[in-house]
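Example 3.2
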Amino acid sequence: MPNRLRDASSPYLQQHADNPVDWQEWGPEAFEEATRRQVPVFLSIGYAACHWCHVMAHESFEDPMIAEQLGRDFVSIKVDREERPDIDAVYMIATQALTGSGGWPMTCFLTPAGEPFYCGTYFPPAPRHGLPSFGQLLAAITDAWRDRREQVAGAAVEITARIAAAGAPSRDGRAEGSAVDQEQLAAAVRSLAGQYDSRSGGFGGAPKFPPSTVLEFLLRHHARTGDLEALAMTAGTLEAMARGGIYDQLGGGFARYSVDGGWVVPHFEKMLYDNALLLRVYLHWWRSTGVPLARRVVEATARFLVDELRTAEGGFASALDADTPVDGYGVEGATYVWTRAELVDVLGSDDGAWAADVYEVTSGGTFEHGASTLQLRSDPADVARLARVRTVLLAARTRRPQPARDDKVVAAWNGLAITALAEAGALLDEPGWTEAALAAADLLVARHLHPGGLRRVSRDGVPGRADGVLEDYACVAEAFLTLFALTGESTWFDLGGSLLADVLARFTDADGAFFDTAADAERLVARPRDIADGPTPAGQSAAAGALLAYAAYTGSSEHRQAAENAVGSALTIADRAPRAAGWGLAVAEALLAGPVEVALVGAADDPALDRLRRVALAAASPGLALAVGSGGETDPVVPLLADRPMVDGRATAYVCRGFVCDAPTTDPAVLERLLG
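Structure, written as tokens:
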């Protein structure tokens, strides 16, 4: 019989709807039941594409004896971390405090008041590697709750206090307005150079995650200073990833991370946020260098987003699963890996042997059971043959079982995708990508925006109940401002400004930094605030970037000051951990470099205006703000367009830096020099 998750909107929760465990969604009813029965809460947090979440579900949550134990002694709550990042953040702090690390599935035991007293991650069905079995753990927790309740209560109070302390602001004595200096950014580059893997790219050892936000910082630092070491680390990492197994050599797109240090064997889930951020980084690498590999990856990754992650409603799905269903079980990598024999079977003996050599498919295999991931460590001379082989292999792969898709639409991640696709579409003259970005933005407006703010998720066009967190407001605001810059449509500017007004009114603390949840959001045991950038920009640094862009368009000192305060807060960790401050450092580069304000005026269908726009988009300055208008507005949507007439009736560009403006020009070559 289905449990109480059968009506959940989350694909992850629905994966557990047929478990014998009597799961409940997070909500007051579950905690009221725990209070009434005087039993602890078992909280399990994961996400739909998580391999080890699937493993623990199969081993433990499908076990009737475990289900009976949970039903008798606990109230069991299942949470999708992607739908409720605020809950995940609070209990991740507790898990890391108690174990020294964190991950998913996350396993927490709470008092009926929601206070954690024991946390961990994966637990096996039988004792293994020093871990108790999950059944043994449940028995031990039950004994402690029954016989040592005072100890449990004391631990819960102590851990909850640590969670609250972790969310307290820390500015390390930084004064407002002095958050960023050039030496701090140069020092971050030197620190990253000390951690750089000169052989395989990336930073540190295995497992290796795409350092998307760090690479964006390094590219912006190079653009502002000309630092060749920053560019070399970026190029080395981006090329190594694009040629390794973490990149889908047939279908495009990147997997979540590499289990080894050489990007050979990925953890096969493909996340929207990784691919959106990497699309933008590869685009900026191409813009800075013109490297053909960079453009090739941009084109393939954009196609992956549009072809495989776009939903029927026009948004972008969250992820493709790490596992492929084979004979009723999830098998990691089954869709993607090949043996030499399989290549010969699909391609014939000559092309099969050639493809095995080109793609590093070895006789012993680089993955499991003699199979290999596909790598392309160098481009073969016969480009046409490679294209033909890739087409045949991709067609054959589509006939294999495919990984499941988590098709919920997350506001923040769609914001990242909109920004990347809109930029790429404009810069590479691919209007289909821009149209896809606009369709996703239309969905966010129609289904995620409501009078009380922004919804975090939707699925099948139906908005979920969870409120947006800071990263949702910030990433969507930046996406809307990007669309305004590229289309000139004032609606996008107004929508972005409205979201940022909410950020300033509902998320700000007394010190000018930001909480991750709004002041009127659900009250948890602590109000989360995470300033560290992870696989996505932290809400703090994402908000700083969006506020800075809005300030450049409007001249608003309030928004610029808020951006500086947020950057100052985000950079408190940059000196000791620059890899955890990549987006904060990237926004700091924009603060130092800008604003470089470019106003373009002319008829919307004038090819001359389009030529000027392409020159502006090709400029690499991290502080650039672009606005497009007709030149005849008496009341322009942004002050940047005020008093900007066309010169001699021709499309015209105005460039201003620090309240000083150059003479207007109608010549793209002159504009290129002004922005160089």
